[in-house]
Write a structure and sequence with these properties.
Distance between the termini: 24 Å
Radius of gyration: 14 Å
Structural class: alpha+beta
Strand order of the largest sheet: 2-1-5-4-3-8-9
CATH superfamily: Glutaredoxin
Shape: globular
Helix content: 25-40%
CATH topology: Glutaredoxin
Order of helices and strands: EEEHHEHEHEEEEH
Largest sheet: 7 strands, mixed
C-alpha cells in the first residue's frame, strides 16, 4: 500500500478517449486520482459530476483529475460523453492501478460478499508523491473537500 509521502509507481492505462495515460506524464503538477466502483451508477455518477463541476477550480491550482474504475474503455467513453467529463477515465480491468493503491476489498451487496473497488481518492504532489488519501469516501461534499485540501497547500 502506498503511504503518504511515498512515491507513486509509474502506472499506465488506457483511457476512454482511446489514448493512454501514465502518471509520470503528469509530474510537475498536482494530480487527483479517484477510484470508483462502476460507470453510470448513482454514486459514481454524482462523484464524477462533482469533480467535473469543480474542474476549473482544480485547474487554477495546476491540478489534473483522473478517474479510475475496472470498466472498459468503451464504457468510460460513453460515461464521459454522457456527463461531459473534461478529465481522463482510466480503464483498469486487470486491477493494476487498483492493487497499487490497495482499493480492492471485500464488500457486501444484497447480503453477498464480493471483491470490489472501495471508493477512494488520492492527492499526488507535483513530485509524484502521495500527499493525502481519502478511503471509504462518501460522495456528498467529497470533491469540495479534496479541492479545499489542495487550496491549503
Amino acid at each position: 500500500m502506498i503511504e503518504p509521502g511515498s512515491a507513486i509507481p509509474d502506472l499506465e492505462g488506457a483511457t476512454g478517449d482511446g489514448g493512454t495515460l501514465s502518471l509520470s506524464s503528469l509530474r510537475g503538477q498536482w494530480v487527483v486520482v479517484y477510484f470508483y466502483p462502476k460507470d453510470n451508477t448513482p454514486g459514481c455518477t454524482n462523484e464524477s459530476k462533482d469533480f467535473r463541476d469543480l474542474y476549473a477550480d482544480f485547474g487554477k491550482h495546476k491540478c489534473e483529475i483522473v478517474g479510475v474504475s475496472r470498466d472498459s474503455v468503451r464504457s468510460h467513453a460513453n460515461f464521459a460523453a454522457k456527463h461531459e467529463l473534461p478529465f481522463p477515465l482510466v480503464s483498469d480491468p486487470e486491477e493494476t492501478w487498483c492493487k497499487a493503491f490497495d482499493v480492492i476489498h471485500e464488500k457486501m451487496l444484497y447480503g453477498k460478499r464480493h471483491m470490489g473497488v472501495v471508493r477512494s481518492t488520492f492527492l499526488i504532489d507535483p513530485e509524484g508523491k502521495l500527499h493525502t488519501e481519502w478511503r471509504k469516501v462518501k460522495v456528498p461534499g467529497h470533491a469540495q473537500a479534496v479541492l479545499d485540501t489542495l487550496a491549503a497547500q
